[in-house]
Amino acid sequence: IDGAVVLVLCLSCLLLLSLGKQNSGRGKFPPGPTPLPILGNILQLDVKDISKSLSNLSKVYGPVFTVYFDLKPAVVLHGYEAMKEALIAAGEEFSGRGHFPMAERVNKGHGILFSNGKIWKETRCFSIMTLQNFGMGSIEESIQEEALCLVEELRRTNASPCDPTFLLGCAPCSVICSIIFHNRVDYTNQNFLTLLEKFNENFRILSSPWMQEKHNHQSEYTLEILTVTIADLFAAGTETVSTTLRHGLLLLLKHPDVTAKIQEEIDHVIGRHRSPCMQDKSHMPYTDAVVHEVQRYSDLVPTNLPHAVTCDIKFRNYLIPKGTTVLTSLTSVLRDDQEFPNPEVFDPGHFLDESGNFKKSDCFMPFSTGKRVCVGESLARMELFLFLTSILQKFTLEPVIDLKDIDTTPISRGLSHVPPSYQLRFIPV
């Protein structure tokens, strides 16, 4: 036993010395909790709610600090000023994608979400250009068509208690089908259902804890890259919008006064017969504020997808070596109590001025910011506005339990937040 203890102590010392040598040789990292040999800081982090752990550490070490996952350091950015300084002012240097082993094994460095370097820039540019060529007007028409189909499916529930998860997942996925294949799909199509199931499963897997090695990849634009890129568009454009819509309806159930004000705006601007369109949004400041507040409150991806620095960079008197993973806390800006008083409370007033006009906020970053801002941001914004207004134009939302028993608190699931499960009735207006 004594020999084993000595061996463990020797190995621990060697690992600590190696860690110290690595840090002093390549960079000067921001302060942070002392890592354990092999384990790093993993025991000091709640892997089920990493965002909360990072927020607690920021109170001790400030807005820029370092945590270790095994022997690999990750620099954490917490708060608007640190995020702005890194992702916007030094956007190019912080535009790398950090380690994400599951995605790297599946995507092999291709696509938009998890690629790096030349291949990422080419793919992102191609994707943006293709979406622009398709035309935002055509995309709006696709969403409007899908909104009508969604409303009909909700009508078929016959005002019975239902869980909206499935239908709210089908609608945005079908919109992507319309964009990619120029044709929407029926919600009963077996291939479509299989596709939807796989994306839901992948989202759950990718929300689990991560960190490993990345690989080197060639940069030719191939059919494989195109396939992965389309898969990225489906994955990013389906689960995220679906989850936000699901949380939005739950929040509207909990706050019928908010729902009533939206429906009052719908009656005044759109009426009960014309389909909502994006031009309506500028005349509906309260509805616009609610959509923003749903995204702020739900805080879908609290720590964002990991970034990485693309070169050795001096940042706030620290020297961060090329390839270092950077974690950006979106929670820290979406729940900034200086920008949003009582940030834990759902309040559309966070995005309204004293006159009731819509008020923008620099801290509104649900799609991230900088070079890696979500490619589908404009698509998601359109879907959230058109789907929610189309539903509230045709239905009153009725809870199946007492309002006081409805819990809207986001549930942490690794790297994502999801709303609690619930049922409701869609009562035709």
UniProtKB/TrEMBL annotation:
GO cellular component: endoplasmic reticulum membrane
Keyword Iron: yes
GO molecular function annotation: heme binding; iron ion binding; oxidoreductase activity, acting on paired donors, with incorporation or reduction of molecular oxygen, reduced flavin or flavoprotein as one donor, and incorporation of one atom of oxygen
Gene3D superfamilies, per database record: Cytochrome P450
Keywords noted in UniProt: Endoplasmic reticulum, Heme, Iron, Membrane, Metal-binding, Microsome, Monooxygenase, Oxidoreductase, Signal
Residues annotated as signal peptide: 1-20
Cofactor: heme
Membrane topology: Peripheral membrane protein
EC number: 1.14.14.1
Family recorded in the similarity comment: Belongs to the cytochrome P450 family.
Protein name: unspecific monooxygenase
Organism: Sus scrofa
